[in-house]
Amino acid sequence: MKRYDQVAQALAQRIEQGQYRVGDRLPSVRALCRELGVSVSTAQEAYRRLEASGLAEARPRSGYYVLPRPTPSVLPKVSRPAQRPLDVSQWDQVLELVARAPEEDRLLMLGRGIPDLAAASLRPLQSQLATLHRHVAAHGLNYDSLPGSLELRRQIVRLADKSGCLLHPDDVLITTGCQEALSLALRTLTEPGDVVAVDSPSFYGTMQILKAHKLKALEIPTDPRTGISLEALELALEQWPIKAIQVTPTCNNPLGYTMPEARKQALVALAQRFDVAIVEDDIYGDLAFDTPRPRTLKSFDDDGRVLLCSAFSKTLVPGLRVGWMAPGRYRDQALHMKYVSTGASATLPQLAVAEFVQHGHYERHLREMVRQYRRHRDIMIDWVLRYFPPGTGVSYPQGGFLLWLELPGAVDCVRLNEQLMGEGLHITPGSLFSASGKFRHCLRLNYAAAMTPAVEAGLRHVGEAVAALLEQEVPA
Amino acid sequence: MKRYDQVAQALAQRIEQGQYRVGDRLPSVRALCRELGVSVSTAQEAYRRLEASGLAEARPRSGYYVLPRPTPSVLPKVSRPAQRPLDVSQWDQVLELVARAPEEDRLLMLGRGIPDLAAASLRPLQSQLATLHRHVAAHGLNYDSLPGSLELRRQIVRLADKSGCLLHPDDVLITTGCQEALSLALRTLTEPGDVVAVDSPSFYGTMQILKAHKLKALEIPTDPRTGISLEALELALEQWPIKAIQVTPTCNNPLGYTMPEARKQALVALAQRFDVAIVEDDIYGDLAFDTPRPRTLKSFDDDGRVLLCSAFSKTLVPGLRVGWMAPGRYRDQALHMKYVSTGASATLPQLAVAEFVQHGHYERHLREMVRQYRRHRDIMIDWVLRYFPPGTGVSYPQGGFLLWLELPGAVDCVRLNEQLMGEGLHITPGSLFSASGKFRHCLRLNYAAAMTPAVEAGLRHVGEAVAALLEQEVPA
């Protein structure tokens, strides 16, 4: 074997063993020469071999970087939920997830929807908050106006422009997180007993709104690459008295897909044809890996039937509880519902976010986060392929920081999670994302924060636990 | 006339003309001697005369102070609402009040429920907020646990002890303002179409919750000194399928009364007998002028049927939106409702309030505010007696910073307010406090902040406008 082949093989082995991770820069040619005592031309040739084998890529003036593994991952299957309206259950599992105080938690939370809060590009937000709290006039401590701070609504209008939405500040209501926006939207549109069509799997926060307000969920089959099935939805609209359609079409939680633009447009047209409102959850939309960010359903809405809901909880920080909605033709009812639910939202966080956006920090932060999350996605998929049993389905997120796994067998992830919690780990079981506890063999992971050895070890441990459970399952 | 009688008369005239106001310290004996060129004994005798006439009182080692006018004020009448369940209206008027951004407002708001935000004893809160935002670890930006920060819940338990309530931190849920607590409580207890018994007049925020959730309000006659009529309530409980009783029994908004303890106890017993839940709004309770503060209904509740709702919006600042509830036996449902409504409440404001309370700033602030609000109450009642037509009914608040006026004739306060807004003034029309627009001839005033000449001039102007309207009313 030629010397450069030996060097290339050594590098490939290190990548395989995880010494260099997806997205990492490999040692420079000069460093490699020093380390292995080879000539510059040998090192260069070794890198060319590595590149040819698809393990690394050269980036001009920067060096060689580890590529995601060429092994094609298996996507989760298209969901096939029960095609009839159901009462939502699963509150106990959700409660377990949300009742915890993160700072007191000694568990490694592998699945909760929390962004990276340690990002350097967030720092201006913290100092703005401190300054505002020290220097703000009394009005910062007073009730804000009910629709929310005009400064912030102006900035939201400017941002919405990037998703193809032409809004006016009067179209926007500030809410206490996206959860309040979704809750106001659904309570504005429905009465107890009404049927709401949802994508499937679907965000558990919305599912629990349906439960609390005695609404029925009609789960529609959903493709992990293109989203809710328009064909199935059309059939459902013909068959059931659906009051609203609730979807997360961009950087979906939990599946990570973004519906193609043509399908988004068709979805709005379908809602028009059947005269149904759409509640669009866009909370991860600004974290899309593509530039410019994908359009919202709202951007295709010409008669005000889309209630767009979003927040700065995933793009900035969740603890400020700054969300917003553009409720279209339902503005008056939504404003009333907002008043009775929490009154005006807190004043100072709105002013801080408005400043952060206005001074360009938001877009800078998004660029950093999108780069980081895209890299982390590749690393985590790589780890899943390494550490989970073959046949495990893995989503391929187009944005955001959530990964969805479908295990190759009847592993009960609620029980798996109970076992893991005894060992200091926590995953989000898939059954939370269904009205009736489907997706028990699925789970959600989070790759937002630093991909530390602890996270890798935790994930490996989960993979091994899954493998052990699958083995038990095989009849002797 | 004796010289000391002349001096006493001169002082009485100055008080009458408003040169010295209720609660003001009059000039010292020495100063009076200098000013009027009289002897010490003459000045002393003049003050004794003034005291005898009930215009001033001597306070040991301090001097003479102006007393409230002995003129007995007329109390508002016991309310006689329609004794059948009603749909709530009046949203437009409420919206006008709450949609305004206080800082942009050029109106002199004489009636909104906002505490004095300029109080010096609030300053530690602002610096704590600033410090927290600068130095807090990432968890301050993260989702809090769903029930809220344990630090704050511990402090709330300590405070609740003073109102006779023995609570455990697990009994307390942090909410986004008292409005959310009330909304969660009512949504936990009812379904659309249900009947809720309320005091009358009743806080418009609660009335609008009933409206938004299609509940019916059964307004119960209410005495401006002792609160909701237990006799009328008992009849109503026999006659109607009442799901919940909603009252503000301590420092009532808008009437200012505190129900006597025995009546509070009887109210809880009545609820037990008819197996109905009580939603108790205690948001002004800590601002009672009596020490120790009055007991809550919750303190008499031995089977968990009272859902106690409160907040730091009136005692500290409203813009932080820190509220709480002790939902008794309904905790699980209330926690679920909390999750679907807004998720966890904002983290840092909770930590700041917890620190403020823990370090004793809260109780110090309360002492200051109670002293200030009691003094302001007397001044404002004095102004009303001066500037409003004879026969105007005036409440006599036992705490808080709100005054209720009943005008002596069919003045429409909604129209009065429209007129006043054109002149830079704003009052809160009484009709907001009724399901069906009763109390149109009543209005609410706020005496929290500095009683400036501008406030006095504004109030005088309102009084004159009322007099003019009453004159028009008289047939020619």
From TrEMBL, chains A, B:
This is PLP-dependent aminotransferase family protein. Keywords: Aminotransferase, DNA-binding, Pyridoxal phosphate, Transcription, Transcription regulation, Transferase. It comes from Billgrantia sulfidoxydans. GO terms for molecular function: transaminase activity. In the C-terminal section; belongs to the class-I pyridoxal-phosphate-dependent aminotransferase family. Gene3D superfamilies: Aspartate Aminotransferase, domain 1, Type I PLP-dependent aspartate aminotransferase-like (Major domain), Winged helix-like DNA-binding domain superfamily/Winged helix DNA-binding domain. Residues 1-69 form the HTH gntR-type domain. SMART domains: HTH_GNTR. SUPFAM superfamilies: PLP-dependent transferases, Winged helix' DNA-binding domain. It holds the Pfam family Aminotran_1_2. CDD domains: AAT_like (cd00609), WHTH_GntR (cd07377).
